[in-house]
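Lay summary. Proteins are chains of building blocks that fold into shapes, and those shapes determine what they do. In this project we predict the shape from the chain. Here is one chain we studied, written as its sequence of building blocks.
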Amino acid sequence: MSEKNQKNFFNDINDHIIGVDEVGRGALCGPVVSCCVLLKKEIFENVLVNEINDSKKISPRKREVLSNFIKRNSIYSLGEASNTEIDNINILNATIKSMKRALKRFDGFTNIIKVDGQKTFDYNERTFFVKRGDSVSVSIASASIVAKTFRDNLMLEYSKDYPNYKWDKNKGYGTKDHFSAIQQFGPTPLHRKSFLKNLITQ
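And here is the predicted shape, written in a compact code that computers can read:
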């Protein structure tokens, strides 16, 4: 990241921007999870702030460290939409629902809100959608880190009940091992049946 881009990346802290991002849209099972983050200016007091980046570019161990760091230095909230909701209303509407659930924590706030991605819903006149937001906004990147860490840990817990599907490794995404397990053992109650139409008959 260039020095100019890095400076712009951190502007949202001084501007009190609320960042919103989601994870899990493409997974075969589990919820879609959204996070909203309002970073405190005190976060600049720790050099760890400079390591905040798009969650996909950070190792799981570093994400865990940064997630805890972000939560200690922010107001944040999480929202989920279950696999059942995804099947009932489709993944786009479920994602929107998870974002709005996360945003409830900020009812009454007048801050500008930045949401990662293309515009998919109307929230209020202070809400803006930012393509590739996790690479240009520290607030969105922070939300992506907290959301991904939360969902990955959730899938690790679920994997204890369903070890055959290797969710501890694939986090519910469509790997070869995951597809093979579905074909061998069938879907679990946590699978999104609408995502598996070619693999299951019920």
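What the prediction tells us: The two ends are 48 Å apart (CA to CA).
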